[in-house]
Specification:
Length: 202
């Protein structure tokens, strides 16, 4: 993890802080960057004692149902595959969470990898958020198929993303690799023009 004074948000060059509004008003789309969120890639067999150890370390059990998430407090675990999850937590907690997992999983077959700096999270909300995503995302995100608590690995405007719906509003977290983040932000801004756009706090 970089020293705090050296750390820069992936989208800092977009000068988003200068554009933040406290209320989105009539805008149909609200966008933000959720900077520095902890992101730990976790691999292991989805059975005892692995799941018990992870639950003890995180306070939340990794989901076994495909494309779902579990949350407790400020920690969320996203299902990425039969033996793979993404553990997401508050900024600055990556070292502590990774160490806690490694200690709890000692003696089991596992992999714990800090991937915090590899992606950023773009927050998307608003009454037209789903409409806008449908312009560039190939998966079915109709509410009958994709609802709060669901996640999926897919593409958005040809960028590889993890899409997590966090509320019924709908609100989404979009995990994007840092090399595609600026491109995707620009695409989202352009796609939001017809609905009205507000840049808000992450």
């Amino acid at each position: 993890m970089p020293e705090a004074f050296q750390r820069q948000g992936v989208l800092d060059h977009q000068h988003l802080d200068a554009r933040i509004v406290e209320s989105r008003g009539d805008a149909g789309i609200a966008l933000c960057e959720r900077r520095f969120r902890t992101k730990i890639n976790l691999r292991g067999k989805p059975a005892e004692p692995f799941l018990d150890a992870v639950t003890a370390a995180l306070g939340v059990t990794p989901p076994k149902t495909p494309n779902t998430t579990t949350t407790s407090g400020e920690t969320t675990v996203l299902w990425l595959g039969p033996d793979e999850w993404l553990v997401v937590g508050p900024p600055g907690r990556e070292d502590a969470i990774a160490a806690s997992l490694r200690d709890a999983l000692d003696g089991t077959h596992h992999a714990v990898t800090d991937v915090t700096e590899g992606r950023t999270v773009i927050g998307l909300a608003g009454p037209h958020a789903r409409d806008m995503l449908m312009k560039g995302c190939p998966i079915d995100i109709h509410p009958r198929e994709f609802a709060a608590g669901d996640c999926a690995q897919s593409t958005l405007a040809k960028a590889t993303v993890i899409l997590h719906q966090t509320s019924d509003e709908p609100t989404y977290d979009i995990y994007v690799e840092r090399s595609f983040a600026s491109y995707l932000w620009d695409w989202l801004e352009d796609a939001a023009l017809e609905y009205g756009l507000a840049v808000v706090r992450g």
